[in-house]
Design goal:
The complex is a heterodimer of chains A (518) and B (75). In chain A, 69% of the residues lie in helices and 8% in strands. Chain A is mainly alpha-helical and 518 residues long. Chain A folds into 3 domains: 2-258 and 394-514, no CATH class; 268-316, no CATH class; 334-392. Chain B is 84% helix and 0% strand. Chain B contains 4 helices and no strands. Chain B has helices at 2-20, 24-48, 52-56, 60-73. The longest helix of chain B is centred in the middle third of the chain and has 25 residues, at 24-48. The chains are: A mainly alpha (518), B mainly alpha (75). Chains A and B meet through helix 2, helix 3, helix 4, helix 5 and helix 13 of A and helix 1, helix 2, helix 3 and helix 4 of B.
Chain lengths: 518, 75
């Protein structure tokens, strides 16, 4: 039974999901970004009629094709894992997850799969206009697919637009638009696709830099840098803007995650934003858990308050306020949320008893309570807290949250600098001479991957212990299966995905070395 | 009807020609795609990733009951 929860099972199931998602995310962002860069390049070819742009487009399309093909179906494994390892969760989320994923499947299939074929097989066989349209539809289709996945993820971070049905033990969607326009989902979508654009741009920039270092394909390299530099600069500014907006949203809907990634324990007005810092263990505790404190930090005074509320006087709650409560600021302690969660669970238990005893009327009355707005706003929204033993359990791993957030932000500013410099050197015609910079750009190809994965680590580790914010902890979501079988498939995936990655990188390197002539 | 058949034929030809004239990397990634799909659907899905609730219960009512119990008893 779940009372004797096997922590190893939860940990291995999480590790397996994390491994699959991390590998999947190595393939996806390049598809999101490179598809748009190709569409832009082809548009230039279409409008100018310059055959050189066709050659450039086809070269990048080849690399896009390799990445697209190797990445196909790596996400399906995540769906397998939902049904096998996370069955309680899958059942509990019901059609909230099913609907967006079904739309994603249909869109991905019709838009991407159909028009990818036209992109690759259609040169000189379909009209130039139709080919261009296909390239744009592939780019739009790939990014729309991401929308639906991120809508599903956004709901997990900020569940809205549903009611829980005690009869089916599932959440049922009552407002599709609330699910679709969930503020977390919208922030996440814009931030994620712009980070994909940035990654695709850095990929094009880096490979073009390599050609300039080797003193070959100069024409292709310079024109590619022009497109990728402008697109990358705009994307990196958009990443910063959407990241800021995302953080502001988090400060309201996931304040514990927000305080954790700033390692803020004591809430305050004029809270400073830590630009750089190193954490160490502190003697102070929250419950039985040691706090962290800064060994070193560089702080921008008052900026965290400005970031969250637009004013230095805004109070930013810390982890202590959020766990122990702060009545003067209207912050409820976790102990109270636990009580309310248990009260909601008691109703579910009563419902079960009523059904067991064939008390149809009583069961019907309890069903209605689960549809009551007041009950949902004040009790059911804390349903997951019923499974929490100690209030401090709601604090995620602070160092992981802090470092992943700061790494992502620092890299974000670095990318703006790199794209800006690349364009400056290109326009002043000094790029081929700046060999140090070309090497920096080449080595930077991997950094957007690091930033993207850090972002996902923050998003998912930063909301622990929840799989669905405040409604379901990971420990209640996991299937009671053998830990050994999860371990076995973990290592199978590790091998399979590593082989796929090696195949992708080796085919790509070979194609890059061959260059656009082949 | 004839026009539809001609249309379908031209689509089939389009794909056939595309596959025939595929470059070395295209052939290689297609092999990888096919092997990968076989592993995912014929090995992983069939032997390692059976749906937990489908394997345990016959109908939705039983599944609901099981998950409700899990929610009530979770620590």
């Amino acid at each position: 039974m779940i009372e004797n929860l096997n922590l190893a099972l939860v940990d291995w199931s999480r590790a397996q999901f994390a491994l699959t998602a991390i590998y999947h995310w190595l393939f996806v962002p390049l598809t999101l970004g490179l598809s748009f860069i190709i569409a832009i390049m082809e548009t230039i070819y279409y409008t100018t009629g310059n055959e050189a742009w066709k050659r450039i487009t086809r070269f990048w399309m080849t690399l896009f094709g390799i990445n697209f093909a190797i990445g196909i179906a790596t996400g399906i494994i995540l769906e397998f894992e939902f049904g096998t390892n996370w069955s309680n969760y899958s059942w509990f989320v019901g059609d909230i997850f099913g609907a967006p994923l079904a739309i994603e499947g249909i869109l991905a299939f019709f838009l991407e799969s159909t028009f990818v074929a036209v992109m690759f097989f259609g040169w000189n066989k379909v009209s130039r206009k139709f080919h261009l349209l296909s390239s744009w539809l592939v780019a739009i289709g790939a990014n729309l697919s991401a929308l639906w996945i991120l809508v599903a993820n956004g709901w997990m971070q900020n569940p809205e637009g549903m009611v829980f049905n005690p009869e089916t033990a599932r959440n049922e969607m009552v407002n599709f638009w609330e699910v679709l326009f969930n503020e977390v989902a919208i922030d996440k979508f814009l931030h994620t696709i712009s980070s994909g654009f940035l990654l695709g741009s850095m990929f094009v920039l880096g490979i073009s830099a390599w050609y300039l270092i080797c003193k070959r394909e100069e024409f292709l390299a310079k024109r590619s840098i022009l497109v990728a530099g402008i697109f990358g600069l705009l994307s990196s500014v958009m990443v910063a803007y959407t990241g800021d907006s995302s953080a502001r949203t988090l400060s309201r809907v996931q304040p514990v995650k927000f305080a954790a990634f700033e390692a803020l324990y004591d809430g305050k007005e004029e809270a400073g934003l830590v630009a750089l810092g190193i954490l160490k263990n502190s003697d102070k505790k929250i419950g039985e858990t040691n706090q962290k404190e800064f060994a070193v930090r560089i702080e921008i005074p008052g900026f965290l308050s400005v970031m969250t509320g637009g004013d230095r006087e805004v109070f930013v709650p810390g982890l202590i306020d959020l766990v122990s409560g702060n009545p003067s600021r209207g912050i409820m302690p976790v102990s109270e949320k636990i009580e309310r969660g248990r009260a909601a669970r008691e109703f579910l238990s009563d419902y079960k008893e009523a059904r067991k005893n064939n008390e149809t009327e009583k069961a019907g009355e309890i069903s209605l309570i689960f549809r009551d707005k007041d009950f949902n706003d004040n009790y059911f929204r804390y349903f997951g807290y019923a499974s929490i033993d100690k209030p401090e359990e709601v604090i995620p791993n602070v160092p992981v949250s802090f470092y992943s957030f700061h790494l992502m932000v620092i890299l974000g500013f670095y990318f703006i600098l790199v794209f800006g410099l690349a364009l400056y050197y290109l326009f002043t015609d000094s790029l081929p001479k700046r060999r140090w910079f070309l090497w920096v750009v080449l080595c930077s190809i991997l950094l957007p991957y690091v930033a993207g994965e850090s972002g996902w680590v923050l998003a998912e580790m930063g909301r622990q212990p929840w799989i669905i914010q405040d409604l379901m902890p990971v420990s209640a979501a996991v299937s009671q299966i053998e830990t050994g079988s999860v371990m076995t498939t973990f290592f199978m995936f590790a091998v399979l995905f590593t082989l796929l990655l090696v195949a992708e990188v080796s085919i790509m390197i070979k194609q890059i070395k061959l260059g656009p002539k082949h | 009807m004839n026009r539809l058949i001609i249309k379908i034929k031209s689509i089939v030809n389009f794909y056939r020609e595309g596959f025939k004239t595929m470059s070395w990397w295209g052939r290689r990634v297609w092999i990888i795609i096919l092997v990968k799909l076989c592993i995912i659907f014929l090995v992983l899905k069939l032997f390692f990733f059976r749906d937990f609730l489908d394997g345990k219960y016959d109908n939705d009512e039983q599944k609901s009951e099981y998950v409700r119990d899990q929610l009530i008893n979770s620590k």
